[in-house]
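Q: Here's a chain of 169 amino acids. Please give me its 3D structure as tokens.
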Amino acid sequence: MIPITVTEIPSVSALRGSLARASFWDAYEAPLRNGSLSPTEIALKSFGATPPWVSWLMALRNGLVRLVGLKSVGALAVRSDKPASAYRVGDRLGIFTIQAISDAEILMGIDDRHLDVRVSIVKPEAGETPRYVVSTVVRVHNALGRLYMLPVGRIHPLIVRAMMRRAVV
């Protein structure tokens, strides 16, 4: 089994500056078997490895949130033949919009009236073993966002870890 550990958001991540206003954040680190993968390639492989139970939860989420006036975000899973090098800022990757891409990080996000979510995949440079870090920062806007995060804050770590375990990176 691939070891996935709780870690800090990397100092090189664009997310570090948003921690002071964050309502929720987490970060997980895993070894990278193929050290030549870019952060975008890691993201594609991770979202392409979305477990069926996560897809079911996303469909349930989309149905339930419509009842309170929130938008359906679609599927988390990415099924695409588009090469990683073709993705640009503004493109969608699963439910997220790409906000920044570099050799070290891909930053993605989704905003709604109840909360904003940012997800980063960083490939740190230092160390003997290649690794990558998936970080999430959520900024809640209102009571609906706080209510939404009660179950999501508990389920989110399970989803991230499951996707990282299934990704062939």
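Q: Can you summarize the key feature?
A: The longest strand covers residues 131-140.
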